[in-house]
Amino acid sequence: MSENALVIDAGIIAGGMGSRLDGADKGLLEWDGAEFALHIVNRLRPHTRKLVINCNRNSQHYWPLADLVVSDGDEAFNGPLAGLRSLMLASNADYLLVSPCDTPALPEDYAERMFACLESHPGATIAVDDGVRLHPLHLLVPVSLADSITEYLANGERRMMKWLKQNNLVCCDFSDQPDGFLNVNTPKEMQLLLTQKGC
């Protein structure tokens, strides 16, 4: 994709409560010598104009990594869609390249392949498919969809997958790198990650 064609910002969702990891802030966990969030920053920043992190606690730890840090904006904890909306509202780009904070082994070519998929499907919302399942928080998404999330949440909906399917969803094939999307939600998944070597 021509870098001049679209303005693309990066967004990292780190607003969860870590309920299955004893309340740990997953973005601040460490793997391969660095915090999870820093691994994600290193994958996204070189390919985007600015980087925004969504978090609802420990913002002082995230500020050194980002151009801007934003919260969900309320105490409702409406899940990842609320975090995604906050990232969109903080950006005036055309698209956001998004990752959650809990996938530190994100593939090196994540950005390039997502951009290539968008080039083949202009205007689409792009999400990762690892060959087994869809990863609904690994996205290249139009910033203009922020209002649709606001309406969706106001109607009592919170399901990320349903919202994606309503917004021109196209899958980007990463079936050759499924380990790159291991998301750490439990101690067992953390142990599995620790068996992987960073790039």
From TrEMBL:
Gene name as annotated: mobA
MobA-like NTP transferase domain: residues covered: 12-164
PANTHER family the UniProt entry points to: MOLYBDENUM COFACTOR GUANYLYLTRANSFERASE
Pfam family, one: NTP_transf_3
Name of the molecule in the record: Molybdenum cofactor guanylyltransferase
Record's catalysed reaction(s): Mo-molybdopterin + GTP + H(+) = Mo-molybdopterin guanine dinucleotide + diphosphate
Keyword Cytoplasm belongs to the record: yes
The enzyme's E.C. designation: 2.7.7.77
Primary localization class, coarse: cytoplasm
Oligomer and partners: Monomer.
Compartments where found: Cytoplasm
Binding site for GTP: I13, A14, G15, K26, N54, D72, D102
Signal peptide, first to last residue: none
One MF annotation (Gene Ontology) recorded for this entry: molybdenum cofactor guanylyltransferase activity
Gene3D superfamilies reported in the protein's UniProt record: Spore Coat Polysaccharide Biosynthesis Protein SpsA, Chain A
Cofactor: Mg(2+)
Species of the source: Alkalimarinus alittae
Sequence similarity: Belongs to the MobA family.
Residues the entry annotates as binding Mg(2+): D102
